[in-house]
Design brief:
CATH architecture of the largest domain: Beta Barrel
Radius of gyration: 30 Å
CATH topology of the largest domain: Thrombin, subunit H
Strand content: 25-35%
Structural class: alpha+beta
CATH superfamily of the largest domain: translation elongation factor selb, chain A, domain 4
CATH class of the largest domain: Mainly Beta
């Protein structure tokens, strides 16, 4: 089986012979570029594709986390950024696998606010997540769902 650069280096007469061997219709009327295209197309049809390996689906495990606090400075508090602690996660390397996942907080009235885990906060396994609409103060200490 010839590749495209190899075919482009060949002469037109050699290409026509190869096209006749592959049963390409009317090779004598084709230009060189057309012959290369037809030969490559015919070679793709004749070669069998190897079977693709099935990749097992990765199931996303849901986890519960506790809303520990807002991210805050000395004189300010950012209600859009919240700190989460996942029970059983004690270090930053174990917490890093949750980065990029969605966080869902359900209010008592049935509203649901969705955020995203953006980074690790410190070395103790605390996560920093960001919400578009800030969480209310009543949510402090409540559980959130990590999907």
């Amino acid at each position: 089986m010839a590749t495209k650069p190899e075919l482009e280096k060949m002469r037109v007469t050699e290409l026509r012979k190869l096209a006749e061997q592959l049963n390409v219709e009317a090779p004598s009327k084709m230009l060189k570029a057309q012959l290369v295209k037809a030969i490559l197309g015919r070679q793709k049809v004749t070669t069998a594709k190897p079977a693709k390996e099935k990749v097992p689906k990765v199931t996303i495990e849901k986890a519960q986390a506790i809303f520990v606090n807002y991210r805050q400075g000395m004189f300010s508090q950012k209600t859009h950024s919240i700190l989460l602690r996942i029970p059983g996660v004690a270090d930053a390397s174990a917490a890093s696998k949750y980065i990029g996942r969605k966080v869902i907080w359900h209010s008592q009235t049935g509203k649901k606010l969705v955020g995203k885990i953006i980074s690790i906060h410190g070395q103790g396994g605390t996560l920093l997540s960001r919400f578009r609409k800030g969480l209310p103060g009543q949510a402090l200490g409540s559980t959130v769902e990590i999907v």
